[in-house]
Amino acid sequence: MENQYIKQFPELMSGKTILYVHGFGSSGQSGTVVRLREVLPNAHVVAPDLPLHPEEAMVLLHDTCKKEQPSLIIGTSMGGMYAEMLYGYDRILTNPAFRIADTMSEHGLTGKQQFFSPREDGVQEFYVDKPLVKEYRQVSEQNFASAEDEEEQKRVFGLFGDEDPLVHTKSLFEEHYSQSISFHGEHRMDDRSFMNAVVPVIRWIDDRQEQRQRPILYIGVETLMDGRMQPASSMMKAVRQLIEHYQVYFVADDYSVQSWIDEHINVPAWHHVVYTHRRDLLYGDYLLAKKKEGDSMATFLEFGSDTFKTWESVIDYFALLGGQ
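^ that's the sequence the OP posted. Answer follows.
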């Protein structure tokens, strides 16, 4: 794994159970399971090997949920398709293969196949024939049965890699759910996409479950970029650290910067961008901007001043505050 991206968060999902639902041809020993256990050392991660036949897999998953009562379910690819149907739990669906039968046919996932990661039963090969594909099609047709429920709308996040060559179900997800987020990455998660996309969503869910209120920090978008519209030095390092302790919002005067924010900030900015010409009316704890505009309702921090000359200075300042 690309360990330079990995960081542990002992307080995140501490004492809670996470059920991980793996993708097609994978197992409960996948790289994503290893990441979850490394990044969230105080969470209990349950990751069963799924039976090949989908109805059997759903029985196992329902039984596991009944036994473990997970605080969060994370499903990737085929596992995202299964996880959507585990109603009543907070869920993150990463590149969910809602049309798994079509994916099998279109990408040569029929005939003799090899499991990508070791399974507890020691089986290394399996065979996908037409009857099995039909089974997957029938199960996937059961998706979204309870998606219109108001509580389910709050519980489900869809994460979709913008370079995924296998599965393209974002528009289908958006027909049923509102919490749809694009992230920079492919079909299989690597360390970078996991840390930048999945972990922020886990943090939002954990905060909601714990009714945790973090101090609010507003950041003016003009501080994020240099004169060539490139990310300012150490800016992303600072954002990654700040969202660990603060509810961070990015403030802009108009919508023209949205594509820049999507490109460079990405998932942490989802539903965390404020458009206003009246920054003095923003209610929160801190406002980091290049100039003061009236008497702010938040403590004003002037980016570019002697105290906050660079993003490294900002990092040092907030490190001293210790999350206050």
